[in-house]
Design a protein that fits this description.
The structure holds 2 protein chains of 2 kinds. By secondary structure, chain A is of the alpha+beta class. Helix content of chain A is 24%, strand content 31%. Chain A has 3 domains: 200 residues, 2-Layer Sandwich (D-amino Acid Aminotransferase, Chain A, domain 1), CATH 3.30.470; 95 residues, no CATH class; 120 residues, Cathepsin D, subunit A, domain 1 (Beta Barrel). Classes of the chains: A alpha+beta, B mainly alpha.
């Protein structure tokens, strides 16, 4: 990989985080209470808040006895998951004579905390022990989001979440963060959680990165960490994008947690998201960010559609390799999927001199591919007739039995001999026999 | 990352353990003039100490302290200034201003330190943006470097490690004994322990006969205590490894800055070519601010991706 594809701290701050995040968005991202307020107003789902503490008086006057059995106590401006106490059940077992029948909870680290412990912890938070620059902070108690059953076998105690980096309304990279024994149930990478790279198109995990090494299995077990299908993937990505729309952030990382019943929820937004996600995905963030910087993105679902078309992982290469390299002719009959599900056979030219696949305007129009919600973006082309904007659409086709999902530019040229030209980008795993004339005759028959 | 910082920390410990021995050995060799040395105050009896210096090898305690207006620190700089030929006043306004100020009685060591300070800040900025050493901001390493000039690097690091160990120890004690205190009183107690530790060290000065310790003034100590407060804050909130990493990086940065401040060549450049010095620092700062490439530490962090 070229170093110019990687995003470093300098570039993150100078090229993306500062220029694309407005002051309001940064203010919102800094305070989790404020983030939640904005998100709820915009209709993005977030874990329910049970209590807020802004001054020591709030701590004393709060009715601690009536808290539910499971909840999470967090600092509003906490960094890197520090200062968070998550309890899973209530206990009334007396520990000593002095603590007889005192209300207490068991944390996910299997430690016993009493009301006094919690009060003291909140007071610490209010003093700013966990905030950036140790400024006075606020604290809140929110609902405990349990593990979704898809992750139950992979996470240790805590709740895994999906970190999605979003730029210009397009989710560009994602990582599943699995808590481990070392991270104490927390899902922050520098505390020892596992970062698992995810294919943007399918939501299937590709590789896992843990403490500086790529690993295949969950530590201490034989459970594969690649190939996990994350449920409700599209919905997770859309939620991540909507979080930025609600808070006016242009470049950020959204921590999305999958509630077992209520679906994806945003835990927090970070306008300077960590860079280890590049290691987990073995991909450079800078290249992807530059790729989507100039796109005109309409809304969350449009952004997700672009992401799925652009950032499809090539992990299916392994499958292709098992099938072996196929030899195709320069002209092949392919099936194209239309908007209403119909499939049409056309003759496509496999053009190893072109990078991107392109489709003629007539056929694209006929098949409904030019409908607004199927257009990914428009690209400007300079030709002898001046500048024209060519739309790039999402195209699904079957070539020699393989399904290919790809962005395809729509060409206006009337002289296009073949309605579909398949570029190099989609010809991985194929060899192309360049003889056209014989094949043309063959197909005419 | 972790290995690197632990290595550095080990190196520091070794240095802190090793260097004092050497100094003590040297001190033992020249033990006879010690009483006179201890009797010398800072400025008035400088001649007495100067004669001693000429006789024996210069030891740690006798290096010219740039932060003090003593004869050893001022005279060479004055001589340098007087030897310089000033050009046209239109091209060299700062040179004329410095000369006038020094003639009026402004100590040249203060001017040199002031001129060097933006250089140190630039150095720290470069260390962050080109190398990736973070440290506690820009002020603390710079202040530490100046402190090291005042106390000497060995005593400085010794004091620093003492403060850090004491504050960590008191934190652990407070946690083990389950005394539940609010944040600020807890910090106050840690500070109390730190001051007690420094006092204890100062009380041992007559026993180990350390000149450098006796000469320690309040301001370097204050700066060190401030750093310890920051350190404890970070430790109380965040994990120990984060705090140790940050502190190690701060120490490395301030040691580099210290060496930079004491380099004769740099001092002369700043004092004799102030215009060139200031403008080039400004230019370097601008270039650093525009840099958006990877840092050295990031090349290491992402080596698995780059080599592929």
């Amino acid at each position: 990989m070229k170093t110019s594809e990687l995003l470093g701290l300098n570039a993150r701050a100078k090229l993306f985080s500062y220029p694309f995040n407005k002051p309001l968005g940064k203010k919102a991202a800094k305070s989790k209470i404020f983030t939640k307020k904005l998100l709820r107003k915009a209709g993005v789902s977030v874990p329910e808040i049970y209590a807020k503490f802004k001054s020591p008086l709030d701590v004393m006057s709060f009715d601690w006895e009536n808290l539910p059995d499971a909840f999470a106590l967090k600092p509003s401006k906490g960094l890197g998951g520090e200062g968070i106490v998550v309890v899973k059940k209530r206990t009334r077992d007396p520990v000593g004579p002095s603590e007889k029948l005192k209300t207490a909870w068991i944390t996910i680290q299997k430690k016993r905390v009493t009301i006094d412990d919690l009060k003291l912890h909140v007071l610490d938070i209010l003093e700013g022990a966990y905030s950036m620059g140790n400024v006075p902070d606020a604290s809140y108690i929110e609902e405990y989001v349990g593990r979704h059953k898809a992750f139950r076998r992979y996470a240790y105690r805590g709740t895994p979440d999906v970190r999605v980096i979003v730029f210009n309304k397009v989710p560009v990279m994602a990582m599943l963060r699995l808590p481990t024994k070392e991270s104490g149930g927390r899902s922050n990478l520098h505390q020892g959680a596992i970062g698992v790279g995810v294919d943007m198109a399918t939501g299937i995990t590709t590789r896992a990165f843990w403490r500086g090494e790529y690993i295949h299995f969950k530590p201490g077990t034989k459970r594969k960490l690649h190939g996990i299908k994350i449920p409700q993937w599209t919905s997770i990505l859309e939620t991540a994008v909507m979080g930025g729309l609600a808070t006016d952030l242009g470049y950020y990382g959204a921590d999305v947690v999958l509630h077992p019943e209520k679906g994806p929820m945003i835990l927090e937004l970070n306008y300077q998201p960590g860079l280890s996600i590049q290691l987990a995905n073995a991909a450079g963030l800078r290249k992807r960010l530059e790729r989507v910087e100039d796109l005109q993105v309409r809304d969350a679902s449009h952004g997700v559609k672009i992401a799925k078309a652009l950032f499809i992982s090539n992990f299916s290469d392994r499958v292709k390799a098992e099938e072996g390299v196929k030899i195709l002719s320069a002209l092949e009959e392919v099936k194209i999927k239309g908007r209403n599900g119909q499939r049409v056979k056309v003759i496509a030219k496999l053009d190893t001199g072109a990078w991107r696949t392109s489709i003629s305007r007539d056929i694209a129009e006929k098949m409904g591919l030019l409908e607004i919600d199927n257009i990914l973006w428009s690209k400007k082309f300079k030709s002898a007739l001046g500048e024209e904007a060519r739309p790039v659409v999402n195209l699904v086709l079957w070539l020699s039995g393989r399904k290919i999902v790809t962005p395809a530019s729509v060409a206006k040229r009337m002289s296009l001999k073949y309605p579909l030209i398949i570029g190099r980008k989609n010809l991985k795993g194929f060899l192309v026999d360049p003889d056209i004339r014989e094949r043309e005759k063959e197909l005419k028959k | 990352m972790k290995y690197i910082s632990t290595l550095f920390l080990l190196a520091f410990f070794c240095a802190a353990l090793y260097i004092p021995k050497v100094t003590y050995a040297q001190r033992a060799a020249v033990s006879s003039p010690t009483p006179t040395l201890e009797a010398t105050a800072e400025s008035d009896s400088a001649t007495a100490s100067a004669t001693v210096i000429e006789k024996v090898e210069p030891t740690e305690a006798m290096r010219p302290d740039l932060t003090q207006k003593s004869k050893e620190s001022v005279e060479p700089l004055k001589r340098l200034l007087e030897e310089q030929e000033l050009g046209s006043i239109y091209i060299n306004p700062v040179k004329y201003a410095i000369r006038a100020a020094v003639d009026a009685g402004v100590p040249p060591n203060t001017i040199v330190l002031l001129l060097l300070l933006p250089g140190v800040a630039t150095l720290i900025a470069a260390a962050r943006h080109l190398v990736g050493l973070r440290g506690f901001g820009i002020f603390l390493p710079a202040a530490l470097a100046v402190t090291f000039i005042a106390t000497g690097p060995v005593v400085g690091i010794g004091l620093f490690l003492l403060i850090v160990i004491v504050s960590t120890f008191s934190r652990i004690v407070l946690r083990r004994t389950k005394i539940k205190l609010q944040y600020l009183p807890r910090m106050a107690i840690i500070l109390l322990f730190v001051v007690m530790g420094i006092l204890a060290l100062l009380f041992t000065a007559p026993l180990i006969n350390s000149m450098a310790l006796v000469n320690v003034s309040i301001f370097p100590v204050l700066i060190l205590v401030l750093l310890a407060e920051d350190f404890s804050k970070v430790q109380l909130g965040k994990s120990a490894s984060v705090a140790i990493n940050l502190t190690t990086e701060t120490l490395i940065l301030s040691l580099i800055s210290y060496v930079f401040l004491t380099l004769k060549m740099v001092q002369e450049l700043a004092l004799l070519r102030p215009e060139l010095w200031l403008i080039s620092i400004f230019a370097i700062d601008i270039t650093l601010g525009k840099y958006s490439g990877l840092r050295v530490m990031e090349y290491i962090r992402f080596r698995k991706l780059i080599s592929k």
